[in-house]
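hey can u check if this looks right to u? its 451 residues, i copy pasted from the old doc so theres a chance i mangled smth
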Amino acid sequence: MAQLGSAPALGAGGREFESPFPDQAIFRGDVDSPMETARDTAETTASTPVTIGRYVRWIAAVFSATAGAVHLGYAPHHLEEDWAHGWFFIAVGAAQIAFAILLVNRPRRWVWASAIALNLGVIATWIISRTVGLPVGPETLRSESVSTPDVVCVALGFGVVALGALSLLAPKFLDRPVRDRIGTGAVTGFVSGAAILIGAVMLTPTYTAAHAGTDHGHSENSVLTGLTACELSGPAASPGQVTLDAEGHSHRGPTEQVALSQTERDELAAQQVLAREAALRYPTVADAEAAGFRKSVGFVPCIGAHYTNPRYIVSFDPAYPSELLYDGTAPTSKIVGLSYLVWSPGGEPTGFAGANDRWHQHNSNGGLCIKGTLVVGGEALTDDECRDRGGRKSAMDSVWMLHNWVVPGWECSWGTFAGECPELGGRTGGSAWDPPDPGSSGAALDGLASR
């Protein structure tokens, strides 16, 4: 008698019965247990080489997510200033965070290419805004100064672009296994941690408060109501009229006031006595012209008509302003303020005592449009538009200007040295007492009132 398992079983007709399972599976119980399956999986994973590309993707994802977080963190402040500006920050921030997620989970070539394109676009926009100025938005054609948060975002963006280019151009290099996983992981952790820490610092009140404080025109105390005579007359005619805040952004509204020491306050008071006396020497346009001042800018709301004496532009002297500002261009037009136009090739001149005198220039987009000695157009004009007016564009890089509102009755509420006087409205080419230009917010309100 054959022993069990020593011979194949016979089926019908004497044929050998073929089991669908291997003998060892039936008789030896060799089916893998869940524990063995998990062990095999772990061994397989451990034997899979970790490539350079894995660490590159993680660093790029951290860079992208951190830049996105900073952009989103500053979006509310920019929304208060301009809806398009704010939504640009929201869109960029959201896209950068989305790319961070995709770079880790689906590192396809199109993801890398899209991330590169986005960050290059953001970097290009930043460069334009810090050089010639953007053609749209609240800082139209006004170059902004460089601040720490935007430098951080640009640096992170450059990092994403560089790692993306490496991934697209050298895929074989990224497929190489990492020999020193501990060392590479430590470097990746250090770089990622540093980026996250720096991004977190940019979102602290030290930076966000400076960006959104009263000096940026976002505070309830900014007196930027839209109903002042200046605002009702229309937008600023030139980027040089508006104020730069601590972050380098231009805006309408009050200038930031820095606390002065007792010595600075006493010196400033003495200087302003001299400035006020100078203003009172030329109460009308006729008086200014008799003293050698000539019209250089026709009447413009918020800043008045400018009459310039080139004898006083070589240096700053509070008693001898080089420009006088009037409420019109008629001989009887009254003085409203002073302007110190100073030739200073070495940079911003030394002016009044303290840090509240913020000098400005008119050199964006090629500068002002000048015909002879008369300004006939602002920086927004193109070269062709300027030539049509008989002028030429002139970037006065070495010329600095400072308004000084010290005339009694014109102590402007945006600040003694503000770029614009909110109480000074009127119509361009007319006077402070003319109704605003048609199409301005002031004219629109007059139309509603007359119905």
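The chain has a mean pLDDT of 82.
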